[in-house]
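Progress narrative, work stream C.
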Amino acid sequence: MFEYADAAVEAAMAAGARYADARVMDGRHESMDARNGEIEGLAQAGSVGLGVRALIGSGWGFFATADLTTEAAQAAGTQAAAIARASASVPGKDLELTPVDVRQDHWESAVKEDPMTVPLATKGDLLVAATRTMREHGADVALASYDVWDTTKWLVSSEGHRIDQHIRECGAQMNATVNGERETQRRSYPGIRGQYGTRGWELVREMDLEGNAARIAEEARELLTAPECPSHAATDLIIGSEQMALQIHESVGHAVELDRILGWEAAFAGTSWLDLSQLGSLRFGSELMNVTADATLPGALGSFGYDDEGTPAHPVNIVKDGIWVGALSGRDSAALAGLSESGGAVRGDGYNRLPMVRMTNVGLLPGDSSLEKMIEATDDGIFMDTNRSWSIDDKRLNFQFGCEIGWEIRNGKRGRMIKNPTYTGIGPRFWGSLDMLGNESEWTFWGTPNCGKGQPGQVGHTGHPSVPCRFRGVRVGVRG
């Protein structure tokens, strides 16, 4: 496949580009769904093609083709350069690219059990058993599903990059819904989005869907008669790691994407409240808040060897001791912002999508406490987990989240279950109230396989390492 990428880059340079790169991508996706003890659907799809970028002056050009021939690749490179030249007709300073070591390399994700080779019957039996058990324990609707992705990429750049990667990802989810006279309640496992990673089928086996199915169904039914979450203008809030993953994703991850900060990208809930002039000095949260973007974490969903510009995966400090110190960036955005190197965070959803800044594994580093210690240290508060709903403004600043389940905390003990728990906050004020963090044994690499961004829309696979956390003085429940 390298020959087609070579042909596209050579043609773009011959047409006047001062930089060009091309990716050939071969991607396969498989998913299966079960409902109430029966297989409901199976989907298997694939796509292969080439996408080429060209840079002229201040403008990028991009063109893609599914025709993998030398002639089509050359035509794509020429067209990408023509689009770049047209883009550069708009006045603007020439785009620069931060330097990167040129590599010729191969990288592939480690798997113990290739998910594409596991028999369909084995996968289906797992989903059927889990949904059947949920039904037997009171679920009116029991759903389970899995997804598998197998992607091979070949990257060539005019600077000399020649990198191929083989990335295998998979995961699963299930949920039980029960219907009452006036409401419906749901419990999900392992979370509302399930759990996904850059791993093999061993990840799904470790989740033990069937072993957790009865508990999930019984908790959903118990929620029907549980009291409503009380309303408090300010109370201690303990958040489980699954909900923390989404909290990080929405109020930190998207906010620190450099293309949003620069105003280049505003789709899907806007830009960012962050100002580059405050990088290195702005207090984002309490001193316990340490966030990194690290695509080298083994098995996490946002892990890879190289991004789609050929920048090697490496950890980037985003928030250190509560101070905002870094951003998710690519070579062009990093150069414009005056950063010394790219954050290695540029990826495209398929061969026919322009690579853009995406989250890698944006996560909260663990502390030295634990969920058990947080509960013991809380006289009066609420523990919430498993996301149910979310809303955030177009600056990624003001937010409200709803969870599937909660418990009151009284005198250091977990009390009665409560339903429909919600909380709200403003980014830096909320993160500034963080006062306890779970430890490394509770550190979970949650995977989000459905992050939306861009126009036309792209779906990104991101990871969010997180632990249970306690926050002080948080508004919970419905405002009176």
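Work stream C, second folded protein:
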Amino acid sequence: MEENRNLLRSTYFYDLPSELIAQTPIEPRDHSRLFCYNRKTGKILHKHFYDILDFLHAGDVLVVNNTKVLPARLFGFKSSTGAKIEVLLQKRIDLKNWEVITKPAKRLDIGTEVVFNENIKCVVTEKGDYGACKIRFEFSPNKTFEEHLMEIGTMPLPPYIKEKLKNRDRYQTVYAKVEGSSAAPTAGLHFTPELLQKIREKGVEICEVLLHVGLGTFRPVKEDNIQNHEMHSEYFEISPEVAEKINKAKKEGRRIIAVGTTSVRVLESGAALRSEVEGSDIEKDKGNYVLIPQKRETKIFIYPPYKFKMVDALITNFHLPESTLIMLVSAFVGDIDKTLALYETAVQEKYRFFSFGDAMFLE
């Protein structure tokens, strides 16, 4: 019966007052609140994010996602009628071709031209479901595509954020490097350069992985049985150097702490049984996993009763009801009802929710 509950979308619902949905980021970044839960002791502590130092130990490995958010929301008009069109960049195919989501999709047919300004436009080359399209950009060669994008694009804030973002950089982590995301890995928004330096000085190793977050992150689960939900694929990278550091830490019994669900998805997608990699004794190494360097797409969908292979602790934000992200957190906590009870406590304590909200530390 419990296993059946794990598979029901409705199991992951909770009531959230709309006033608790954070509309603007806290300043400074590390002054957001921190909800701490220890799975072994069941203890809950209410702290601030800068207190994360008290929960990290020398030898820990903190894994962050260094993706950078593109100004991926574009507003243009149909060249034939002047009708307004919104284009959300989803995934780059090559230099000029992209997978996108459009609004209103019914106004667009294959061959429709959308103009953004006198120097850049796009043509619809393929249509899909729910506003998904493939488009080809055409732009003047006096600037790179990225330079054009910086001029016409705005940050692709989630639909539940109604306030205008005053500073583009507040929807980027301070360690963002590799452009390609349509949404921020929001658990990382709480870190400042000064806090990261203090973490290093404490003897914590910081490793960077890459996962380009797609707009599928905000796609609701519509299937009653969550097994029927199809995840959007997202590109990730694990370098040989990072894999070596994490494998060494795991072998020495040191903790791997993932910053955000995107880092979790990278680590769990990249894990493989040591016995399969090294040809060692399968029974002896049962359950012993290593991280494999790789660059590929992942559709990993984590929900209870998933058994984590690489991650020992998790820093994350509070997620939407019935979302794939709260399902992942429920798997990490190990109990759906406990997860919902933690969220209920956060509501009672008036924590701020979602992308610009407060953080959780689950150890």
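Helices lie at 2-6, 145-152, 193-201, 240-251, 261-269, 274-278, 324-333, 336-348. No further action is required on this item.
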